[in-house]
Amino acid sequence: MNSIPLEWKEYQQSADFVCYEHQMDSDQYFIGYFKTLVDPKILHNHILDFLDKDPNISINQLYNIIPIAEKELSSDAKYIHDKLLQGYVVIQRGEQIHNCVLVNAFLFKGRDVTKPEIEFTVEGAKEAFVESLAINLNLIRKRLPIPELCIKEIVIGSTSKSKVAVCYIEGIMNKQYLNTCLQRLEELQFNQISDITLVQQMIEDNSNSIFPQMVGSERPDYVAWALTSGQFCILVDGSPTAVFAPVNLGSFFTSYEDYYLPWIIGSVIRVIRMLSILFSVFATPLYVAVMTYHGHAISNTFLPTIISSRISVPFPPVVEVLIMEIVIELLREAGARLPTKIGQTIGIVGGIVLGTAAVEASITSNLLLIIVALSALASFTSPIYRMSATIRVLRFPFILAAQIWGLLGILICAITVFTHLLRLTSFGMPYLIPFYPFRKSDVYDSVIRTPYSMFSRRFSFFRSPNSIRFNKEKAQLNKDIDE
């Protein structure tokens, strides 16, 4: 067997690697660790302190008395090297590699649990995931304190060695969906996995589609709800977001805050959200089509207003629309990349100044300015950021189609998108379910937020082995006294 100094020679080139000899009477101990990964308090108080107390202590005795749960004995050189890079302290008696004591002394540095920044809500919990996988799993298990909650860990990334956790509830999760996810993760070949979004793109059914096939969330309560519905979630160490699947198109227009509100209010808000998305996609293409080909469809009541608004604009409608859409995207990107206070100022002041200047310079009409502004606001109503980005991109092919073929072009583009959605799946589950294929029993909670009395069964398209949430008949017999 090679000696310890020879085995650790490759690490000596790193300034943060420590390998020193601890002499105790006639015994010689070698201790190795990366000081940037190891907590010095654990090292000195719980490891080295026991070496100094008893000069004749053996490796096995040392292993038994160290008061740290995560420790083990190993003589596998490769395994020891991997543990060194994970924040373990390795202790070996003598120069030749025999059994080594491996003690986890990882130095944890990370931010505390804070409020959600993307999915902020007035009602409900105010906790969000952080970059630590252990804390994120704690937030989930705290909400689901049941033995059926299972967590499988996989290490992916040949360079990053990122820990990936797949969570599901045994007896509720369909094993076919779960096995498909685990197989794709295990077969994933990539060197650097720095965020969950990379994993999401690599394991989706159709990575070339602009429509996301997994829902991302920074809220533990939303993920817990998804798990109890029969879905699985994926978390990556270093990423403050969890993704869950399988999902359908309606999942991207559903905010978890809808369930904290009375079902009538939640339903109204959800319908408004869906209508806003449709308006965001079709508003500017319809303007181009009507102004270019279908002017006769404009009512005589509005015709004078539209003519006076466009009489001094030198550009055709499609150029006018593209200019304003690109300006909106520039303002949006600038506001997102700049510091918070400056970004808000740029968004408000830039929008007012550029909008007023564009109208006065006859670059655009007042009517289009209002339509583009409302369209931009409507696109923000999607609670899932990736779907919001999809809606932003989707407008441009509709605008070009409207310029080429008018309303017929919008119809052709809509049929193309609809056909793509019909063929799209999420881990094998149809993307447009329960409307295609149609399932009458699952239509509830799709367009409107239904009362909790209708949640006695899980959606059948998740194919859960246990489709019963609660006994509906028993719940009706145990109503409150004032009902």
From TrEMBL:
Q: Which keywords accompany this UniProt record? A: Membrane, Transmembrane, Transmembrane helix
UniProt KW Transmembrane helix keyword: yes
Name the Pfam families on file: GerA
* Residue ranges of the TM segments: 271-293, 343-361, 367-385, 397-422
Q: Which family does it belong to?
A: Belongs to the GerABKA family.
Protein name (Swiss-Prot/TrEMBL): Spore germination protein
Organism name: Paenibacillus planticolens
